[in-house]
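Help! Submission page says 'invalid entity' but I think these are all valid:
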Amino acid sequence: MKIVNENILALEKHYRTNLVNSLIGFKSANLIGTISKEGKTNLAIFSSVIHVGANPPLMGFLMRPVSVERHTYSNIKETGCFTINHINKEIYKQAHQTSGRYDKNVSEFDACGLTPEYTETIKAPYVKESTIKIGLRFVEGQEIKSNGTIFIVGEIVEIILSDDVIAKDGYVDIERAGTIAISGLDSYHETKSIARLSYAKPGVEPKEI
Amino acid sequence: MKIVNENILALEKHYRTNLVNSLIGFKSANLIGTISKEGKTNLAIFSSVIHVGANPPLMGFLMRPVSVERHTYSNIKETGCFTINHINKEIYKQAHQTSGRYDKNVSEFDACGLTPEYTETIKAPYVKESTIKIGLRFVEGQEIKSNGTIFIVGEIVEIILSDDVIAKDGYVDIERAGTIAISGLDSYHETKSIARLSYAKPGVEPKEI
């Protein structure tokens, strides 16, 4: 079937939101941890984290202009720091629950049953139950004019993960680490490796590595 | 183990690229199709497509400043259009191969064994072998100052997919459609559904739906 723009705009709101959110493909499943200057922690699920660059090491994510996620943004502005924590199968229900509209004075760590954990490097809480954790310092926010969302970019200052998931070439076996994927707004998926492929060169068939 | 920023910067280039690209979690696997004003088609794999908004329906992706992907950008600037095509298990090797550094006068459709397909709505080629295809018009490009990458945003003008993968509430079962996920630079994964969870509300345990 074909659906054209006018028909998308005419769809019932929840139907349209489910539909458009599904069209990206599989999305990363992360919890972003922050703390306010008064020391109140915040934790929110994000499926829009993407790679921005390796040198300097940058990650980015998109934030809606008005939503519960504002707590994340105001904390990042206050402290200049945030953490990205991979979601695994053991904590996906707790992770999903962080998307509830909790008051600013409620910590999603407490409300959803996850444990804050700190290092000396960064002023933001990690999620203890996560197996891959990244600490970042805020570097820029670019507003997307079309709808007022903000693309937030952070530089990696710390990576915490188990030695045995890093391959000799630096690739991290996130499947082995238990990381899961999201589709749409609310669907969670585990993965099964198909293959890693060799660097693509014109005229040379890619090989499994 | 912990890796801190100074140590990331000191890593061998390929090791660092593999490592940092793995830290996002699972990534969407899409082919972006474009055509130049002279009618030359271009096809490139992207793992950075994210949801920007549902009303208006917007999708975005990050483009490196200097790379083979420039062909995609110059074509988008020329025609104002591009397509996003989900990658499935049947075409992942061809999709990977589009990342080779082909000359501008070589179409990755021909070189990699994929078939261009057109509709009357949009001046850009779809990938016939893809099961979920989205046509978009360019709306804005925001430069990420930290490294000169550009976040490109498009508005959906057309969606082409099979009726039987859309649930009653608009959710698209992309796993059933055969869509796969990427991790790192070169690892491909199929998925297995864990669950869909109900809309999160404070104090209410999320239920499988």
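Support: the input was valid. A stray whitespace character was the problem, and the output above is from the cleaned input. The CA atoms of residues 22 and 184 of chain B lie 4 Å apart.
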